[in-house]
């Protein structure tokens, strides 16, 4: 307590609180002037620990300048933290002003904040980057003492982390005495995050502060009425049981892995909600007004349950939440731990969570996730070099603030750890790109955003490019979307253009928890009205979460460890026993390939557990290779655990299909001929500033943006194939969209560990993925009955012991 000013001491004492050890350690680090990374479980008072040094300093040394900048990955989290921070400030009657600045902040308040900033400003990486694009940024941040990065694990390894790292380098240039702080509950590699946080990557300047362990969470797997399903990944079969849990608790958060599943689960729960309990839905495609309304209702304790996606994964805490339910497999122990932490939010009480596996493989994954949480195992963090499209956006933003010298700018950029290895040649290539778009585009004035003066100083070529940058800056590239509106103009949110294109007037779909009928559609709006008609679930093209490699390793171990099976439900044990009898169960590290005939076709099953994205890519590559070998493939389906390819001829030698050169030949051909690279190019072209999303007074439609980027893509492919953006698009396509690293590991493993088993009929392990084939081919109206008949027949064949 001796580190605290008297008024803070009294505030703690009035609540009969004593600062926790990690909170005192954060105060001590601030007194020493050290940067700090705090890793502590949810409910340990991380946010208060991050802000305690700020409050103490503002009490001891009042100022009228901006003192602390808080950066969060979510707008909702910034709003929530402001609400929580204002409580102690008001109770102590401190003259400390706290404000938020996000994309939702009114423009007049944004303008005022630059002239008269608050003492504490809560913002996002994108809004901070925009602030740095103004000439008065150096004045605004001249006395900034601390930057607090919350939920650092959520974006440090991604492009938003690249942007924030570059922004912190600029803030450090403005005030070299600036102190950096990061907070997280789920960090696996502490030193990697210390290096990311530190100026020049010097981890010795960053104190690692570890919070005390809290009460062990109480996590269970719900065993459904009857049996664990053979297929599916939503868990909607358990809707009535989930509603019973909601009724038994005060407030429940129901997490789904995608927005489409959230809409599906909400409808399933609503149908089973016989007691008419107040429940709602929350995801990133809903309008700001809808999300804020739901968040306020949760904060006021008016809801019994909220169905949500990752939009509420991070730090948005309501004290009355006493249960978290995960629909479908969690896909990673860190994500599960993060979601579990949304319940209770008290260190000394166990958080209660329930997992609802969608199928038998997901049961194994859920059990693996529970074991990982109990063992304190976190998902690996994949740090990589900073993206060049992000760098181009950042440089253009700083140029908007004022002219710069090349040497000084490079040194500042290299002090950001993701760009520490950036060479002068690569930096010059980025400048050359911003200067004129590259030599293939130099004839067009609209790409000439920077000019180099004779003395070597770089400046923005024309004021219109400054306005263009501020209108279009940002790292999150939304897919082309249409606004969903009622006829009175009220906006409900957005759906992706691809889904909207499938709709015609009279069609209905679920959105924002309602059944909506399409009235009409134009280039930017989908006009709807409420309906009672049967409706379909919208789809979104976001990347599917793949099971983490560490969970995959645990599932493989389960398969090879019959002594563990007593922990599983009887039907899961029976499934594995029959697989062991009829075929084999792969050993850890082994790649099991099964081939068998079924209903006039020949099947190849590959059990690699590398995730849906990698399996989708592998399916494309293997079918191309099978075509060249005359095996007449017809198609493939995949889940996180296995890939099934079916065709007219049997595969006798699967080893030849998995040879290492598949990544050099078929992979490159496939990516270049598919839309994959074009989609990646669209994203990097927008992020780098080459293509506008918005023009003054007008926002481009998704089709217009795509048309523009496709034209430029074709020009560059023909005339400048080594263009910086094509390289960046390739890096994105390989790393983000295809999980090529896991695909490479799979191919490597095939060379030495492949076990090929030839069977006379379908195996038990193959059933969950083969059922997906029927799901894709049966008409919607007859789907349920037809799929049930097909699945029962498949199961009967697979589970027959003879």
From TrEMBL:
State the Gene Ontology BP annotations. Answer: DNA repair
- Listed Gene3D superfamilies: P-loop containing nucleotide triphosphate hydrolases
Q: Which terms does the record give in the GO molecular function aspect?
A: ATP binding; ATP hydrolysis activity; DNA binding; helicase activity; ligase activity
Q: Where is the Helicase ATP-binding domain?
A: 27-197
Q: Which InterPro entries match?
A: ATP-dep_Helicase, DEAD/DEAH_box_helicase_dom, DEXH_lig_assoc, Helicase_ATP-bd, Helicase_C-like, Lhr-like, Lhr-like_DEAD/DEAH_assoc, Lhr_WH_dom
Looking at the Swiss-Prot or TrEMBL record, what is one Pfam family this protein matches? DEAD_assoc
Can you give the residue ranges of the Helicase C-terminal domain? 238-381
- Keyword terms of this UniProt record: ATP-binding, DNA damage, DNA repair, DNA-binding, Helicase, Hydrolase, Isomerase, Ligase, Nucleotide-binding
- Supply the NCBIfam families for this chain: DEXH_lig_assoc
Q: Write out the similarity annotation.
A: Belongs to the Lhr helicase family. Lhr-Core subfamily.
Q: What is this protein called?
A: Ligase-associated DNA damage response DEXH box helicase
User: What is the protein's species of origin?
Assistant: Sphingobium terrigena
Tell me the classification of the organism that encodes this protein.
Answer: Bacteria, Pseudomonadati, Pseudomonadota, Alphaproteobacteria, Sphingomonadales
């Amino acid at each position: 307590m001796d580190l605290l000013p008297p008024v803070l001491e009294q505030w703690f004492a009035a609540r009969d609180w004593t600062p926790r050890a990690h909170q005192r350690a954060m105060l001590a680090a601030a007194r020493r002037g050290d940067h700090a990374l705090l890793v502590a479980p949810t409910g340990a008072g991380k946010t208060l620990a991050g802000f305690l040094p700020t409050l103490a300093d503002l009490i001891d040394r009042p100022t009228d300048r901006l003192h602390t900048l808080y950066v969060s990955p979510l707008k909702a989290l910034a709003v929530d933290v402001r609400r929580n921070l204002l409580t102690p400030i008001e109770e102590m009657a401190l003259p400390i002003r706290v404000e938020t600045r996000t994309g939702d902040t009114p423009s007049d308040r944004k303008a005022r904040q630059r002239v008269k900033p608050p003492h504490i400003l809560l913002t996002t990486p994108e809004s901070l980057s925009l602030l740095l694009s103004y000439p008065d940024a150096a004045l605004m941040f001249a006395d900034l003492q601390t930057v607090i990065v919350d939920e650092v694990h959520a974006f440090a390894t991604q492009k938003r982390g690249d942007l924030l790292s570059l922004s912190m380098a600029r803030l450090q240039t403005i005030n070299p005495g600036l102190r950096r702080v990061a907070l997280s509950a789920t960090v696996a590699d502490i030193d990697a995050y210390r290096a990311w946080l530190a100026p020049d990557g010097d981890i010795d300047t960053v104190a690692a502060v570890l919070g005390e362990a809290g009460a062990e969470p109480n996590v269970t797997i719900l065993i459904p009425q009857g049996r664990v399903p053979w297929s599916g990944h939503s868990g909607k079969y358990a809707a009535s049981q989930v509603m019973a849990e909601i009724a038994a608790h005060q407030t429940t958060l129901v997490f789904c892995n995608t927005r489409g599943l959230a809409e599906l689960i909400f409808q399933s729960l609503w149908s089973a909600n016989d007691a008419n309990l107040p429940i709602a839905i929350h995801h990133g495609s809903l309008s700001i007004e809808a999300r804020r309304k739901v968040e306020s209702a949760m904060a006021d304790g008016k809801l019994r349950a909220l169905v949500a996606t990752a939009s509420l994964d991070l730090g948005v805490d309501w004290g009355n939440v006493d249960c978290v339910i995960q629909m479908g497999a969690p896909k990673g122990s860190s994500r599960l731990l993060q979601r579990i932490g949304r319940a209770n939010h008290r260190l000394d009480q166990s958080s209660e969570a329930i997992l609802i596996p969608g199928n038998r493989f997901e049961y194994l994954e859920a059990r693996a996730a529970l074991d990982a949480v109990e063992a304190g195992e976190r998902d690996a963090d994949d740090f990589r070099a900073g993206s060049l499209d992000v760098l181009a956006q950042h440089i253009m933003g700083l140029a908007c603030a004022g002219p710069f010298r090349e040497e000084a700018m490079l040194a500042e950029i290299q002090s950001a750890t993701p760009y520490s290895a950036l060479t002068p040649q690569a930096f010059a290539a980025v400048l050359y790109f911003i200067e004129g778009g590259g030599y293939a585009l130099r004839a067009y004035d609209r790409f000439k955003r920077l000019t180099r003066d004779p003395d070597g100083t770089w400046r923005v070529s024309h004021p219109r490019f400054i306005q263009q940058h501020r209108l279009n800056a940002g790292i999150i590239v939304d897919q082309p979307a249409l606004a969903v509106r009622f006829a009175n103009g009220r906006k409900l949110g957005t759906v992706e253009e691809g889904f909207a294109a499938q709709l015609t007037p009279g069609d209905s779909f679920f959105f924002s928890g309602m059944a909506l009928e399409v009235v009409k559609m134009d280039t930017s709006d989908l006009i709807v009205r409420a309906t009672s008609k049967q409706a379909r679930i919208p789809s979104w093209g976001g990347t599917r979460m793949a099971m983490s490699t560490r969970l995959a390793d645990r599932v493989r171990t389960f398969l090879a460890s019959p002594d563990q099976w007593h922990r599983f439900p009887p039907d899961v044990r029976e499934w594995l026993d029959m697989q062991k009898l009829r075929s084999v169960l792969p050993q850890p590290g082994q790649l099991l390939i099964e081939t068998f005939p079924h209903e006039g076709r020949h099947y190849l099953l590959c059990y690699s557990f590398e995730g849906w994205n990698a399996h989708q890519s592998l399916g494309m590559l293997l079918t191309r290779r099978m075509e060249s070998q005359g095996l007449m493939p017809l198609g493939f389906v995949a889940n996180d655990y296995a890939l099934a390819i079916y065709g007219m001829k049997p595969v006798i030698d699967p080893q030849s299909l998995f040879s290492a050169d598949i990544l050099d030949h078929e992979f490159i051909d496939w990516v270049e001929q598919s839309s994959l690279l074009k989609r990646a190019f669209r994203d990097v072209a927008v992020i780098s500033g080459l293509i506008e999303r918005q023009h003054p007074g007008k926002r481009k439609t998704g089709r217009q943006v795509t048309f523009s980027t496709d034209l430029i893509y074709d020009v560059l492919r023909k005339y400048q194939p080594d263009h910086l953006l094509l390289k960046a698009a390739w890096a994105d396509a390989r790393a983000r969209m295809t999980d090529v690293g896991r695909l490479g590991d799979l191919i490597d493993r095939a060379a030495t560990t492949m076990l090929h088993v030839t069977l006379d009929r379908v195996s038990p392990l193959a059933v969950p993925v083969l059922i997906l084939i029927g799901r894709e081919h049966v008409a919607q109206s007859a789907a349920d009955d037809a799929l049930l008949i097909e699945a029962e027949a498949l199961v009967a064949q697979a589970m027959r012991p003879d």
